[in-house]
Amino acid sequence: MIVAAIDRRERLEKIVTFAAEEAKMRGVKLHIIHSMHGGSRTSREEVEQAEDMLGEAERLAEKIGAEVETHLLMRGNDPAKDILLFCDEVKAELLVIGVRKRSPAGKLLFGSTAQQVILEAEIPVVCIK
Amino acid sequence: MIVAAIDRRERLEKIVTFAAEEAKMRGVKLHIIHSMHGGSRTSREEVEQAEDMLGEAERLAEKIGAEVETHLLMRGNDPAKDILLFCDEVKAELLVIGVRKRSPAGKLLFGSTAQQVILEAEIPVVCIK
Predict the structure, then answer these.
(1) Can you say whether residue B68 is alpha, beta or left, with left for phi > 0 and alpha for psi between -120 and 50 degrees?
(2) pLDDT tens digits for range A11-43
(3) Is A100 close to B119, i.e. CB distance below 8 A?
(4) I want to staple B23 with a disulfide (CB 3.0 to 4.6 A). Which of A8, A71, B48, B66 is the partner?
(5) What is the pLDDT of residues A91-106, one digit of tens each?
């Protein structure tokens, strides 16, 4: 299993393309996930946007020829915990994430979710910009 | 081309195994590199240890069935710059590095070379613990 975690549209295509090609090459299934808090901290509009994003990711992965499933995680966890738990649950062999964001001043920063996931994951983590 | 950067023996096997399998699967060459400063800041003993390490890495990659070349970089650069320049030079499509080190107190830390490489590389970077 390969897990790809997508956060926003900006990097979706690069993350999904890499993960889908890798899944196809290895002959394993690709799980595409997006983590939200859920409950009162997540609006209906945010959920609809996330579902659209996952739908777009699914179509792209299918076009590449990967076997794919998408999952909108709303378990009250922070994203790093959601991603790490999900990888354990499906016994993932590889995790693909987006890294690098810009500060309001334009400086390149390392996202804290990405840092935590890279440090704590038991499997190789592919970082996509 | 796939580039694998090795720093010390501890993670060598995991880094080289992942990179060699990936190179074999993609039908591309694997370059294994180790960066040292060189000149008066690098002793003959350190160079010999690095050559031994690269030799070990080469034998492992060949055993897995990858086409492999090793390179001891001594260009006076810091490791992050060496790794990024080398990836450009060979037009690498994927970079494999080790991350995570422990502080003297045992706390998990993100190495600064790894952080810089992940943020600045133009290609996907695979992080191995």
Answers:
(1) beta
(2) 899 999 999 999 999 999 999 999 998 878 888
(3) yes
(4) B66
(5) 999 999 999 767 778 7
Length of chain B: 129
Of B112, B73, B74, residue with least CA distance to B90: B73
A11 near B CB under 8 A: no
Q: Tell me the whole-structure pTM to 2 decimals.
A: 0.94
CA B129/CA B53 separation, integer angstroms: 18
What are the boundaries of each domain within chain B?
A: 2-128
Contact in structure between B35 and B4 (CB atoms under 8 Å):
no
What lies within 8 Å, CB to CB, of B100 at 6+ separation is A118, A119, B108, B109, B110, B111, B114, B129
Q: Which two tokens stand for residue A39?
A: 């409950």
Q: How high is the pLDDT of residue B126?
A: 98
Best mutation target among B25, B26, B28, B118 (most A Cβ atoms within 10 Å) is B118
Measure the CA–CA gap between B96 and B13, rounded to whole angstroms: 12
Q: Per the structure block, which two tokens stand in for A94?
A: 């590889």
Assigned CATH for A2-128: 3.40.50.620
The residue type of B109 is L
Q: Does B11 touch chain A (CB under 8 A)?
A: no
Where do we find the tokens 């997508």? A6
Q: Do B126 and A122 touch (CB under 8 A)?
A: no
